[in-house]
Amino acid sequence: MTVTQRYRWLWKPLVFVAALTPALLMLAGAFGIAGRRLGADPVEALLLTCGKTALNLLCLTLTVTPLSKLARLPQLLRLRRMLGLFAFFYVLLHFTVYLVLDRGLDGAMIVADVAKRPYITLGFVALLLLLPLAATSTQRMMRRLGRRWQSLHRLVYPIAILAVWHYYWQVKRDVTEPLIYAGIVALLLGWRLWHRRRRTPVTSTYGSATAPERT
Amino acid sequence: MGAAALGAVGVAGTAAGKAMPEATALAKLRAPRNARFVADETQTSFEDITSYNNFYEFGTGKADPQRNAQALRTRPWSVTIGGEAGVTGRYTLEDILKPHALEERVYRMRCVERWSMVIPWVGFPLADLLRRFQPTSKAKYVAFTTLHDPRQMPGQRAGWLEWPYVEGLRIDEAMHPLTLLAVGLYGRVLPNQNGAPLRLVVPWKYGFKGIKSIVAIHFTERQPPTSWNLAAPDEYGFYANVNPAVDHPRWSQASERRIGASLFSATRPTLPFNGYAADVAGLYRSMDLRRWF
Question: CA dihedral in degrees (B124, B128, B130, B136; nearest 10)?
Fold first, then answer.
């Protein structure tokens, strides 16, 4: 098998199934399939699972470039788009659970939340910033936008910071987990800064900031 | 069987409670239901009430208290009564409970985190206990303290809150007929994760006012410090009355999620004073509830 074949028929399907698994488990929990339950506060469980899965996938997306460089595995970049889109998928699920199940589509309350609750404002801004990235994730848009595509997709850095901040601010007292995420994001973004300082642009070797489909 | 027997049967309860805290492992308590204090709503299941807890002495996760509280020794247990009262001293739990007839009351409980339950408590009015110790005219407040024992309470080795946990009520709140000292739920001895052997229940206030595993009750002239207020004074007030019109700085308190309800009907509006306004609104008649949150 060539590298391209291996990625198309093995690695990509594997990553796809792995990234979809949390959603399938939540679905099973919501409908009591295979004895699974979402626990005493199912809405909270869904919010937390969607949010943390989105954050995990966002961190993984940001790990691809450093890892491909450090491990000298440029082909890893082929997985990055899928990871990023799955992060977006879980953010949308997270937002939908909040709108429909938690706030019962109460428009006035949702507007007040977004305007008045700093942590909700942060999460909402992160979601808005993700929209253009998801919309321009196709091969065609990459070609059409050219160099501007890369600048646009650097938005993922502030998005990651907003996402961790959003988590940190809504925790009641025990901030251990948000701080762990903050450390991971700091490491991933710090590596990029350090790399740039060494005057080797992070993305130059392998082209643009999203995995090219074919190389 | 009243409170007098609780001391004896409770021993069996805690011994058996070392295994999984299934309802059957806890000793039964006979307590007639007091019809005047029964919320006419679907009761939250025993499983949810005993597996979804905030009891930071045993960890900050909702499942931590059930997992980590089983080794807590609730016998022997003593409670110190002190401060502005005619009778003070250290009493065994049996002495504390002996004169009181237990009753069952079904109360709503609203957590400051926006979830709620309906719980059939077994207990007796706090007022009946307080009167025995003859509070003086200087007793304007009542202060409560939780056990401080990091060997038994692993959460106390972390600095999430200042330990021991402390809470307080104004004397008129403490003497109100709704205010309950609970020793059980669902007709059985209180599981450790729910605050055994003795906990406070103030149904019109946010759940964190319901201090657990009480070892001291003091009558004071000044408003006593309270744990969540010390930790974040702009977020948690001394009064902490359930109020849909006064938001937590970080989230709205206008609605709540009922634990155990279906995924699509969990969210419901929060009621002023958690639905007990007719009984308690008079306590706060001249107060600005936005200021005294």
Answer: 160
Q: Is B290 among the domain residues? A: no
In a domain, B94, yes or no: yes
Helix (H) or strand (E) holding B76, with range, is: none
How many independent structural domains does chain B possess? Answer: 1
CB contact (8 A) between residue B51 and residue A40:
yes
Q: Do B257 and A102 touch (CB under 8 A)?
A: yes
User: Which of A183 and A172 is assigned the larger pLDDT?
Assistant: A183
B-chain residues within 8 Å CB-CB of A170? Answer: 250-251
Contacts of B7 (CB under 8 A, 6+ apart): B75, B92, B93, B94, B97, B98
Give tens-digit pLDDT for B209-227: 999 999 999 999 999 999 9
Q: How many CB atoms lie within 10 A of CB A31?
A: 11
Answer yes or no: is the ipTM higher than 0.90.
no
- The pLDDT tens digits for A174-193 are 899 999 999 999 999 999 99
Beta bridge partners of A108: none
Say yes or no to pLDDT of B250 above 80. yes
Residue B241 structural domain: 2-284
